[in-house]
Amino acid sequence: MGTDSEDERSESSKKRAGAKRHASREAERSEASDGSSGERSDPRGSEDEPRFPHVPESDDDDDAVIVPDAGAGASRSREHTDHAREGAIATDGGANAEGDSCSPDTCTCGEKTAADVESETQPVATDGAGVANVDEMGELGDLEFTEPAEDVSQDVDNGAPDTRVGVPEGVDLDTPEYSIRSQMNDIETPDEKTWFMELDEAVIDEGRCIQCGTCVAACPSDSIGVGDDGLPKLVKMCTGCSLCWDFCPRGGMRYERQWKITGGEDNVKGAGDPITEFSAKVEDDWTDEAQDGGVVTGILATLLEEGEIDGALVATESDEEAWKAESYLATTTEELIENAGTVYNQTLALGNLDLEQWKHKLPDKDWDDLSLAIVGTPCEIEGIRALQDFEWDYQAQNEGIRAVDYTIALMCTKNFNYHSLMGEQLEEQRGISPSEIGKMDVLNGKMMVYDHDGEMIVEEDIENFHDAALKGCDECADFTGFCSDITVGSVGSSDEYSSVIVRTEQGMNAWDMTEPKLDYHDLEDKSAVGKLQGWDKKKAFESLERPFDPDAPRFIDYTDHAENYDTALNPHDQGH
């Protein structure tokens, strides 16, 4: 064995000296408590008086261990600490009678003897209590853990590992936890990653949203919904996948490139590259309520009757607000006829391709084999075509997107914000309540409004209603629906006839089935269609703040858009 160093011996002496000073101070306090200096008061005389343990001296340097409970500077033998404490403090609440004391080798309190003490193994007091995995020499041993219970708390999957059990009521397990967001906050965003807040900053907040619903349909996490104002809004955490930006016709999608991808090299000039064009009308009484010749309703009804489609997503008038458009899945000819006509505001149609909301109308259908037609504005058809070009999983909208087999575009120069058109322009400025209106039409550059008796009550230049139009429509050069199977409108045909442009083989198939029910002839005035298409394109070139380039990549980087439109980069860093 080695000898203690001088520093160690000095430290040991200090400890013994400290213990003696502590004991001396305790004796002085005991004497002062009864006002005398020479005699000790009976320790059992008062329950309220403080009692102090006697601290025995120890000459064993090797066994001295600091015990926090004993007071500063006090030391005790490792072997006899617990019993020494018992000898100093009586178990009945009073101190030992005078003369009774316990030391490491003797016990006069009658409780234990030295032999008893030596025969017991005492726990090591390192923090005021015994430590289970420390031996008598202070060496740390192996930890022992209790085995977890079996078939009780550990069995949480109930035999189905993919099923969560015990989920609190109202908790949506599909919604990412806040902890995930916290972790993402510490991740540096790659340059190519674009979030909904960029789309919000560049398109929605700027008033450029055309309410097509493509962003809602594109979102793979179903994070985008529709707000009370009819505009897209974030309803749960954005994952930064960039798809809402990429497919937005006013954001990341270069729509003129989509024309070429859909229709080929010749589909970017004039009114596009049609197969054939007609002026046509349906010969039936129900067309009195239809727009122009009722061709759209006639084609859809034929497709339903022939079993080509299971339903058609069209616009209907809201039950709560007159002339406010809503999406509706018509599955019968009667429903199609009931919803014939045009409502001049958007429905976010592509955001309503979640087939769950129409399940009550298609209860017995195998959704994988479902076939639908969709009627929409040219921008909506651009969006559905682009989405169908990719094998993304679009979550709730996916089955609806894949189910669309026929697309019909309505000729369109601009669409309107419902509240601006019906509330401000017609009701407030012209005194016409929406409930008084029986029919509306935009023809030959005029806004025409009729009452329920067919009498015209408004006929004004469409430019008078410019403030009610969607700002993003100014940037659109697609008057004739370049990406559709069939385009239908009124320009180029006489009253009661519709102008029909057949663009694809699918469109030709629909036309061939419908032809026996139609009164038709060659398109009466192709130049009228071409002139209006040219005017629309000219207006778009004046409004677009980016190059119009059908040969450029289909998707526009947000950084490029921001440079052209002077939009904020990283709006989330600017308190967006």
Task: Give a summary of the structure in a few sentences.
The chain is of the alpha+beta class. About 30% of the residues lie in helices and about 15% in strands. It has helices at about 5-30, 80-90, 115-120, 180-185, 195-205, 215-220, 245, 255-265, 295-305, 335-340, 380-390, 400-405, 420-430, 505-515, 525-545, 560-565; strands spanning about 65, 75, 225, 230-235, 275-280, 310-315, 325-330, 370-375, 405-410, 435-445, 445-450, 455-460, 485-490, 500, 520.
Looking at this protein, list some descriptive labels.
alpha+beta; three-stranded antiparallel beta sheet; 15 strands; 576 residues
Chain-wise SSE layout:
Blueprint: H1 6-32, E1 64-66, E2 75-77, H2 81-88, H3 114-119, H4 178-185, H5 196-204, H6 214-218, E3 224-226, E4 232-234, H7 243-246, H8 255-263, E5 276-282, H9 295-305, E6 311-317, E7 325-330, H10 333-338, E8 372-376, H11 378-388, H12 398-403, E9 404-410, H13 418-430, E10 437-443, E11 446-451, E12 456-461, E13 486-489, E14 498-502, H14 505-514, E15 518-522, H15 526-543, H16 558-565
Parallel strand pairs: 6-8, 8-9, 9-13
Antiparallel strand pairs: 1-2, 3-4, 5-14, 5-15, 6-7, 10-11, 11-12, 13-14
Helix pairs in contact: 8-11, 9-14
